[in-house]
Amino acid sequence: MNLSKKTLTGIKASGLTLPTEELFNLPERVLQFGTGVLLRGLPDYFIDKANRNDLFNGRVAVVKSTSKGGTKEFDEQDSLYTICVRGIENGKPVEENIISSAISRVLTADQDWKTILEIAASPELSIIVSNTTEVGIQLVNESIDQTPPVSFPAKLLAVLFARYKALGSVEQADLAVIATELIPDNGKKLEAIVRELAVFNKLEDEFTAWLGKHIRFCNSLVDRIVPGKPDAVALAKLESSLGYKDELIIMAEPYRLWAIEGDEKVSKLLGLEAADSGVIVRPDIEIFKELKVRLLNGTHTLTSGIAYLSGIDTVTKAMNDEVTRKYVNEVMMQEIVGAIPYPVDHEEAVAFANTVIDRFANPNIEHLWINITFQYTMKMKIRVLPVLLNYYKLNNKVPAHIAFGFAAFLLFMKSTRKEGSQYFGNHEGQEYVITDDEAAYFYDKAVNNEADYVNSILSDQQLWKTDLNALNGFSAAVNENYNNILKNGMASAAASIDQSLQVSK
């Protein structure tokens, strides 16, 4: 049996959340550019949940961002799909299956542009959501009179201009445009491009004024791991337990966050906050970026070299190892939480750190440490360095766990072999590829200055924009850890991290 509206009555799996008939009659209140699993597993998840709780009462008309493929899978299933939530929340396993009816239909811009403009003109519409990848928010000077325009910003401008022509300045014209692309200030960058395109297209000044009055372009932060469709073995097992086939089925972790930068008007247009605590509308969402970058991403980065050089290949396995789990917990709680370079409530930071523990331990997501070491140097500079400097500003002493993470980073980056433009490290006979734009720099340091490898890198102001050797006791602690790892192995050295504090006294 294949999932569709007709087959819903035949689905008997226990513990499965099914849509009711009333949900299929809700108006289209959202125009979404993108069919990807992140949108279906996060914004559309929230919309579906809100609909089932009689809070949002609207469905999503989706525009397929590219002309590749088609809408066959969505059409055959009446745009229904299953969200399988698997993971750990508050230390307890979570297993939930939901058939989402958030999406009403999927359109292609090439074939359905007239229909898309008709949706744009509807007074029922209150939200536009986009996830067109980072490449999607780019300025391409083109006419919006094309059917359709090529670039996403031009398509969006055409949609907004059609709404302006149809509704004018009535209150129903109000709209929130929420970008979810993974770039800083995504909504504001999109707005700047749309306004520039309006000038290029010589649209009337009244339209520009209308944009300022009725359209809210919102930055947003999305945070949920949505691996998408499971592998063949896991899929067969799932379909057997559910009792139907689903070509659109997706997996998602329990943790979910959609932080949207907006005012009360945006909150009212969205109407989702009451449905789930993971939807947050605030005038400033920088705190959520900081929590994610410092606690989740920063801890990932600091632990990656430690875990990989300990012979642990995945994040989940590291959380099942006593030493690495202890490191993850202590580096966050003892050092990062109190040194985030942004005003943050201590309890809020601790609460977020606890969600990180759950997310790292999720046995349903295979996240390889070697992949987390991609662009290791850049990640250390962006995610970890600001915390290190702020920790010294506040405490003027060595953060033992960050110092150990630095030592592991330096050892991982120490190239032992070069082949063409590729660099390799070797630890205890295990060779690995170093995928980092600075790999050649570390290779040269290892070959030409091995005796002073650690200090020469820490003191490189061109690399770090500061002299890390000038931090009280830091270079001594990193050297102590580095040599300890070489002498006793990563696991033994990691188990005795706190001893590095002795060299700074």
Describe it.
With 505 residues, the protein is α/β, with parallel strands linked by helices. Helices cover 45% and strands 16% of the residues. The chain has helices at 37-41, 43-52, 72-76, 109-120, 152-167, 186-200, 205-214, 232-242, 264-270, 286-308, 315-319, 322-336, 346-360, 369-372, 376-395, 400-412, 439-448, 453-458, 461-464, 474-488, 490-495; strands at residues 16-17, 28-33, 59-64, 81-89, 92-100, 103-108, 127-130, 175-179, 215-218, 220-223, 250-252, 257-261, 279-282, 417-419, 422-427, 430-434. A six-stranded parallel sheet has the order 6-3-2-7-8-9. A hairpin with a 2-residue loop joins strand 15 and strand 16. Helix 10 crosses helix 16. The protein is globular and about 70 Å long.
Give a topology summary.
Elements lengths: L15 E2 L10 E6 L3 H5 L1 H10 L6 E6 L7 H5 L4 E9 L2 E9 L2 E6 H12 L6 E4 L21 H16 L7 E5 L6 H15 L4 H10 E4 L1 E4 L8 H11 L7 E3 L4 E5 L2 H7 L8 E4 L3 H23 L6 H5 L2 H15 L9 H15 L8 H4 L3 H20 L4 H13 L4 E3 L2 E6 L2 E5 L4 H10 L4 H6 L2 H4 L9 H15 L1 H6 L10
Parallel strand pairs: 1-5, 2-3, 2-7, 3-6, 4-11, 7-8, 8-9, 12-13
Antiparallel strand pairs: 4-5, 10-12, 14-15, 15-16
Helix pairs in contact: 4-5, 5-6, 10-12, 10-13, 10-15, 10-16, 16-20
Which tags fit this structure?
single chain; 505 residues; alpha/beta; Rossmann fold; N-(1-d-carboxylethyl)-l-norvaline Dehydrogenase, domain 2; 2 domains; 6-stranded parallel beta sheet; 4-stranded mixed beta sheet; 21 helices; disordered C terminus
Largest sheet: 6 strands, parallel
Query: N- to C-terminal separation?
Result: 69 Å
CATH-derived architecture of the largest domain: 3-Layer(aba) Sandwich
Low-confidence stretches: 500-505
Number of domains: 2
- Tally of strands: 16
Helix content: 40-55%
Look at the structure and name the CATH superfamily of the largest domain: NAD(P)-binding Rossmann-like Domain
CATH fold name of the largest domain, please? Rossmann fold
Q: What is the CATH top level name of the largest domain?
A: Alpha Beta
| Category by helix and strand content | alpha/beta
Radius of gyration: 25 Å
Instruction: Enumerate the strands of the largest sheet in spatial order, edge to edge or round the barrel.
Output: 6-3-2-7-8-9
The tally of helices reads 21
Strand fraction equals 15-25%
Question: How would the global form be characterised?
Answer: globular
Global mean pLDDT? 95
